[in-house]
Design a protein that fits this description.
- The chain has 133 residues and is α+β, with helices and mostly antiparallel strands.
- The protein has a domain at 25-70: Single Sheet (Ubiquitin Ligase Nedd4, Chain: W), CATH 2.20.70.30.
- It has helices spanning 11-21, 93-103, 107-116, 121-129, and strands at residues 24-28, 33-37, 42-55, 58-70.
- Strands 1, 2, 3 and 4 form a 4-stranded antiparallel sheet that branches.
- The longest helix has 11 residues, at 11-21.
- It starts with 10 loop residues before the first helix and ends with a helix.
- 15% of the residues are buried.
Length: 133
């Protein structure tokens, strides 16, 4: 039996037990978004808190934040997409809409940011949010 179970465990005891079991927990700093790509959709997690628990059996990643389902191809391609008019690089319409929605910029600004980042919606969003766009 684990000491303190049922009554709550003091943080010091918990740290000692975790060390004895070979468990380390750390929070990843500076994470702005997490994107889970599935066959039929993508799940974008904005303002995430990401915690990694390292154990002898392997690592476990926990993500908490604002989840939003997006169509497939919103992040890294993978599906038929409509190409935006006036875009020299053939940027998918979904990517433009995603950047506009996430940043609140105009369509023209979203296309410029996507072209400047080689068509990557995530990089375009970061570029705009950092004031580089």
């Amino acid at each position: 039996m684990i000491p303190g179970m049922g009554r709550g465990m003091n943080p010091r005891q918990l740290k000692v037990l975790m060390k004895r079991l070979g468990i380390q927990i750390e929070e990843l700093e500076g994470v702005r978004a997490v994107i889970i790509v599935k066959d039929d959709k993508e799940i974008h997690v904005n303002n995430p808190t990401v915690t990694v628990m390292k154990t002898p059996e392997g690592d476990t990643v926990q993500v908490a934040g604002e989840m939003k389902e997006m169509p497939p191809g919103s992040y890294c391609g993978g599906g038929e997409t409509e190409v935006a008019e006036g875009s020299e690089r053939g940027i998918p319409e979904e990517d433009i809409e995603l950047v506009m929605e996430q940043t609140g910029v105009s369509r023209e600004r979203a296309v410029e940011a996507l072209e400047a980042t080689g068509g990557s919606p995530a990089e375009a969003i970061l570029k705009i949010m950092e004031g580089g766009g």
